[in-house]
C-alpha cells in the first residue's frame, strides 16, 4: 500500500495519456449508451442556460472555464464537476439546453490532461456515467472531432479511476467511482481491462459499505440512500448490456433495500440521524423500486443500531448505538439515544438535520441539535480537528414488545467523565400508538444544569394550555405534558432543501429542596384532656404543622417486576390483553388536607360526565414507572432523597424477580411457540430473555417524566 501511494503521481500521469496521440485506438462512438433512471429539475436546467447554477437553494454565476474554486463548498464543487446537472438540461429539453450541455462538455475535454481536477475517482465516475447517459442528447449530432475527443476523454478518465482505486475513496463514493468504470466498460467493450478491474474491486467496495444487517457502516441514512442508488444504477447498466450480474451485487441490493425502507418515516422521507436529510420521498421510492422488486421492510437493524418501533399510526425511530466505527465516523453526530416520532404522514418530534454549509455542519453535530438530553458546555463524544471521533460513549439498550406495546431502556456514559453521570432514557409506546411516554435520568452525576430538548417539525403548531402544550398537525392534535419545568424556544430545521425556523420544547430538571436544620426542641406543658381548653400557643403550633405538611406524599407500593402473562381467554368471550402492572410511585393525599381540598379531590376521583378536552386519552395502561399526575395535567413531584424510586427497568426487565405466575405464563407461551413451529403455522413470539440490569447510583435530581398523548384526530 505505501508503494502505491509513492507511485500515485506516476500512475496517474501514465493513465492520462491521450489515446489520440497514438497511444491507443479511439472508437467513433460508444457501443452502448446508457439511460439515466433519475428525473431532473427543469428549473435548474433553465438557470444553467442563463449561465447560473442553482444548488441547495443558493444561486451562483457560472464562470467560463472555471471548474474549481477554493471558496466553493465541497458539495457544490462535487456537483459541478460531476456533470449530474446534465439531467436537468435534459429535463428542460429545449435546443438551447442541448447547445449549453455540449458547450460545457467541450470546455472540460479541451483542458489539458494535467490541468483537469481528477484526483477524486468518485467525481470522475459520476461524470463518466453522466456523459454516457446523455450522449444521445448532447453528442450524437455533434461533429466528428467533438465525438472523438469525448471518447478519448472517457478512456483517459476511466484509466485514472483504475490508477487511484481503491485507496482514494471509501463508502458509497467508491461505488460511484466503480459505476463510472462499469459504464465505460460497457460503452467500449474493446478495452476488456475496464470490466475486469471493475469485477475485481466491486466485492470489496460492497463489503466495506454495508453491515451484516444491510445498513450503512457510517450509520447515516442518507449514505444508505446514495449507496442503494448506486447499486440500482449498476444493476441497470449490467442488465442493459446483458452481462451476468455479480452475486455480491445482487445480494447487497436485496439486503440494503429493506434496510433503507426501515429508515423512512410515514411521509416516505428519511429519518434525520448522523448527517442525513429527508430527501425527496418520490425519489426514495423510485430508488427502492429500481434496486429491488421486493417491498420487504427490515424488522430490525441490530448492527446498524437503529430501532424502529411501530404501533398503530405512530412510528418511533431511535438512535440506540454509539458513533460509527473509526474511519467511518467523520459525519457522526452526538445524537445517541435521540429519537424521532411521527404519526401517519406527519412528523412531530424530529432532529435538526444536516447541512453542507460551513459552520452549520459542525453545529448540527452537537447534542443540542437532537431530541435528547444535553449539557450546554460538555459533549457526550470527543471529536478531533479532522472530524473523527476519538472518544465515544458506551451504549446499552433493552427492548421489549408485548401485545403491540413497546418498552425501551437505553443508557450511555458520555457525560460521566465530566460529572454528568450515566444518562438513562426509558420510552414507552402504547399498543394503539396514541401514547408515548418517557423518563430521563442522570445516575450518579454531580451536575444538574442539563435540559431535555424536543425539536418540533416546522409544520407543527404549538399552543400552551393549562396542563401542557397542544401540538397541532394537519390531521391530529397531541398533548405534551411533563412533571418538569417546560418552555417553548426557537429552533431550526435543516431536514429539507432550505433552512426553516421552527420551535422546540425544552424541559429543565426540578432541583430537590435544600435540607433544613431541624429546630431545637422546646419544652412546653401539654394541657390535660380533662381541662377541655387549648391555649393560644397550642393552636398556632397546630396551624403551623398543618401548613408545613406536604400536599402529596410518595408512598411505596408493592410491585411485580416480571412481565405479565397473557391469560387464555374463553372461546365465547373476546380476548383480554393484560399489561405490565402499574408499579409506579403513587401520590396519595394525606389526612392533613383541608376540607375544601378533600371535597375537590373526591370530585376529581369520580369519573366525569364528559372527558376533559385536553386530558390525555387513556386507551392503554402506563408503563410501570409512569406517574399518575401525567394523566391529569402537568404537576411537579415532591422529591424525597432517601427513597429509591422503582424504575421501569427494575419493574419490567428484571428476569430474576419473576413471580411463579409469570414463569408459568412464560412456559405456556414457549409451549405455544413450539406447537406452532411443529405444525408449520406462524410462530408465537415468546417473551425474550432479559439481562439483569446493573445497580445504578441515585440521581442528583428527580427523573424528568413526560408524556405525549393523542387528543383528537
From TrEMBL:
UniProt GO cellular component terms: cell envelope
Domain named Heparinase II/III-like C-terminal: residues: 299-507
Polar residues composition bias: residue spans: 554-563
Biased composition (Low complexity): 658-668, 676-695
Region (Disordered): 509-630, 658-701
InterPro entries in the cross-refs: Chondroitin_lyas, Hepar_II_III_C
Recorded superkingdom: Bacteria
Localization (cell): Cell envelope
Main location: other
GO MF, one annotated term: lyase activity
Name this polypeptide is given: Heparinase II/III-like
Organism (species): Acetobacter tropicalis
Amino acid at each position: 500500500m505505501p508503494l502505491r501511494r509513492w507511485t500515485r503521481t506516476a500512475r496517474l500521469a501514465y493513465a492520462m495519456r491521450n489515446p489520440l496521440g497514438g497511444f491507443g485506438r479511439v472508437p467513433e462512438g460508444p457501443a452502448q449508451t446508457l439511460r439515466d433512471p433519475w428525473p431532473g429539475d427543469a428549473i435548474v436546467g433553465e438557470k444553467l442556460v442563463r449561465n447560473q447554477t442553482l444548488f441547495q437553494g443558493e444561486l451562483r454565476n457560472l464562470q467560463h472555464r472555471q471548474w474549481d474554486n477554493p471558496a466553493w463548498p465541497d458539495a457544490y464543487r462535487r456537483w459541478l464537476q460531476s456533470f449530474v446537472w446534465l439531467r436537468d438540461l435534459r429535463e428542460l429539453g429545449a435546443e438551447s439546453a442541448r447547445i449549453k450541455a455540449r458547450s460545457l462538455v467541450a470546455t472540460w475535454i479541451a483542458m489539458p490532461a494535467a490541468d483537469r481536477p481528477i484526483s477524486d475517482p468518485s467525481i470522475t465516475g459520476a461524470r463518466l456515467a453522466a456523459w454516457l447517459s446523455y450522449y444521445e442528447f448532447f453528442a450524437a449530432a455533434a461533429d466528428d472531432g467533438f465525438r472523438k475527443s469525448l471518447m478519448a476523454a472517457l478512456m483517459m478518465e476511466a484509466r485514472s479511476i483504475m490508477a487511484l482505486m481503491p485507496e482514494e475513496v471509501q463508502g458509497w463514493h467508491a461505488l460511484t467511482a466503480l459505476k463510472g468504470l462499469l459504464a465505460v466498460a460497457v460503452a467500449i467493450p474493446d478495452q476488456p481491462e475496464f470490466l475486469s478491474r471493475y469485477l475485481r474491486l466491486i466485492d470489496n467496495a460492497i463489503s466495506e459499505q454495508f453491515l451484516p444487517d444491510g445498513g450503512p457502516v457510517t450509520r447515516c441514512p442518507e449514505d444508505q440512500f446514495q449507496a442503494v442508488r448506486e447499486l440500482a444504477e449498476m444493476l441497470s447498466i449490467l442488465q442493459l448490456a446483458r452481462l451476468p450480474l455479480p452475486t455480491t451485487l445482487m445480494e447487497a441490493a436485496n439486503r440494503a433495500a429493506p434496510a433503507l425502507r426501515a429508515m423512512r418515516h410515514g411521509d416516505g422521507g428519511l429519518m434525520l440521524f448522523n448527517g442525513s436529510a429527508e430527501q425527496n420521498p418520490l425519489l426514495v421510492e423510485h430508488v427502492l423500486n429500481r434496486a429491488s422488486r421486493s417491498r420487504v421492510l427490515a424488522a430490525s437493524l441490530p448492527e446498524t443500531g437503529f430501532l424502529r418501533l411501530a404501533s398503530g399510526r405512530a412510528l418511533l425511530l431511535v438512535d440506540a448505538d454509539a458513533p460509527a466505527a473509526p474511519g467511518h465516523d467523520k459525519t457522526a453526530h452526538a445524537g445517541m439515544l435521540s429519537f424521532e416520532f411521527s404519526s401517519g404522514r406527519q412528523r412531530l418530534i424530529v432532529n435538526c438535520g444536516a447541512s453542507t454549509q460551513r459552520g452549520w455542519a459542525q453545529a448540527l453535530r452537537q447534542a443540542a441539535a437532537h431530541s435528547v438530553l444535553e449539557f450546554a458546555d460538555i459533549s457526550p463524544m470527543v471529536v478531533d480537528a479532522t472530524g473523527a471521533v476519538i472518544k465515544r460513549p458506551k451504549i446499552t439498550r433493552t427492548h421489549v414488545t408485548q401485545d403491540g406495546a413497546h418498552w425501551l431502556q437505553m443508557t450511555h456514559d458520555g457525560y460521566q467523565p465530566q460529572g454528568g453521570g450515566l444518562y438513562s432514557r426509558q420510552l414507552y409506546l402504547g399498543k394503539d400508538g396514541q401514547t408515548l411516554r418517557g423518563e430521563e435520568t442522570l445516575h450518579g452525576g454531580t451536575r444538574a444544569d442539563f435540559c431535555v430538548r424536543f425539536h418540533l417539525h416546522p409544520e407543527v403548531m404549538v399552543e400552551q394550555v393549562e396542563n401542557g402544550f397542544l401540538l397541532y398537525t394537519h390531521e391530529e392534535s397531541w398533548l405534551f405534558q411533563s412533571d418538569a419545568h417546560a418552555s417553548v424556544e426557537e429552533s431550526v430545521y435543516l431536514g429539507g432543501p432550505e433552512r426553516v425556523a421552527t420551535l422546540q420544547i425544552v424541559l429543565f430538571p426540578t432541583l430537590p429542596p435544600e435540607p433544613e436544620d431541624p429546630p431545637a426542641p422546646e419544652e412546653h406543658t401539654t394541657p390535660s384532656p380533662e381541662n377541655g381548653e387549648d391555649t393560644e400557643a397550642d393552636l398556632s403550633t397546630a396551624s403551623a404543622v398543618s401548613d408545613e405538611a406536604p400536599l402529596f406524599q410518595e408512598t411505596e407500593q408493592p410491585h411485580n417486576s416480571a412481565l405479565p402473562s397473557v391469560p387464555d381467554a374463553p372461546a365465547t368471550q373476546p380476548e383480554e390483553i393484560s399489561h405490565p402492572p402499574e408499579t409506579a410511585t403513587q401520590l396519595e393525599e394525606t389526612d392533613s388536607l383541608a376540607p375544601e381540598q378533600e371535597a375537590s379531590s373526591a370530585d376529581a376521583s369520580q369519573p366525569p360526565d364528559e372527558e376533559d378536552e385536553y386530558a390525555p386519552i387513556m386507551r392503554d395502561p402506563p408503563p410501570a414507572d409512569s406517574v399518575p399526575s401525567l394523566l391529569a395535567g402537568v404537576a411537579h413531584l415532591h422529591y424525597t432523597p432517601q427513597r429509591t424510586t422503582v424504575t421501569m427497568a427494575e419493574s419490567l426487565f428484571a428476569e430474576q424477580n419473576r413471580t411463579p405466575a409469570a414463569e408459568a405464563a412464560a412456559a405456556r407461551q414457549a409451549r405455544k411457540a413450539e406447537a406452532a413451529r411443529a405444525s408449520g403455522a406462524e410462530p408465537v413470539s415468546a417473551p425474550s430473555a432479559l439481562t439483569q440490569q446493573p445497580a445504578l447510583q441515585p440521581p442528583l435530581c428527580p427523573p424528568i417524566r413526560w408524556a405525549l398523548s393523542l387528543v383528537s384526530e
